[in-house]
Each structure stands twice: as structure tokens, then as C-alpha cells.
């Protein structure tokens, strides 16, 4: 237990960042995973019927934010296993703890990836179409 606490104490930026991203991701799961627009026609219907598009945009934004930052923090923790940290009580055990934390964060980010590319697939398709139209008109 002392080694586990020591790993977090020696990496204050990663520790605070991880806690902040975990709090935001929990809020995202509780509040921003209700909307389902799985096809492009559902996205068009949602925008045409609803005067306020904020819930859909917030849902997509928070889920995308949670996915990307959980993945980023996981990669930062995994990167620590390749560095020598002489401040840890047990450097080898510290590396194992960093690997486990990193893998858990990456696995947790897949929950948001699944939600974005299944329940919000229509939004992803709409965004890709808009980018294709914009890039196609520049030529």
C-alpha cells in the first residue's frame, strides 16, 4: 500500500490529472449518455425537430473529451514504465503500478469509444460528411 501511495506522491501532475479526468468521465456517464442517434437520418430529424441542439452537442463533446483524455492519461501512465524513477520506494513495483493504472485508464476509455461509435454514430457520420464537403470544395 505504501508503494501505491508513493507512486501517486511522486507523480503529482499525473495524479491530479487522472482524478480530474475520472471525475469528468463519471459525470459524463451519469448525465451525458442518454441520447442515441445511430444514423444520419436520426441526426437530421433531431436537428429539424429540436429548437435546442445543445444536449446533442454537449453529449458528443463530453464523450469525446472523456475518451480522448482518458486515453491520453493512460498513455502517460504507461510511458512511465520506460523511465527510471529513483524517487519510488520500489522502482520495479512502481512500474507495475503505472502499467496497471495506464491499462485501466485505456480500458475505461473504450467505454466512451463504444458509445461514440455506436449510439452517436449518426453524429460521427455527419461530421465526416461536413469535413468531406469542406475539403472537397477547397480543391
Description:
With 139 residues, the chain is mainly alpha-helical. The chain has one domain (2-137). Helix content is 78%, strand content 0%. It has 6 helices and no strands. It has helices at 2-9, 12-31, 40-49, 54-79, 91-118, 121-137. The mean pLDDT is 89.
Number of structurally distinct domains: 1
Q: Please give the share of residues in helix.
A: over 70%
Low-pLDDT segments = none
The sequence of SSEs as H and E is: HHHHHH
Helical segment count:
6
Distance between the termini: 60 Å
Which shape, going by the Cα principal axes?
A: elongated
Beta-strand segment tally: 0
Biggest beta-sheet profile:
none
Give the overall average pLDDT: 89
**Structural class by sheet pairing and helices:** mainly alpha
The value of Rg in angstroms is 19 Å
β-sheet strand percentage = under 5%
List the helices and strands and how they pair.
Layout: H1 2-9, H2 12-31, H3 40-49, H4 54-79, H5 91-118, H6 121-137
Keywords:
single chain, 139 residues, mainly alpha, elongated
State the gist of this model.
The protein is mostly helical and 139 residues long. It has 6 helices and no strands.
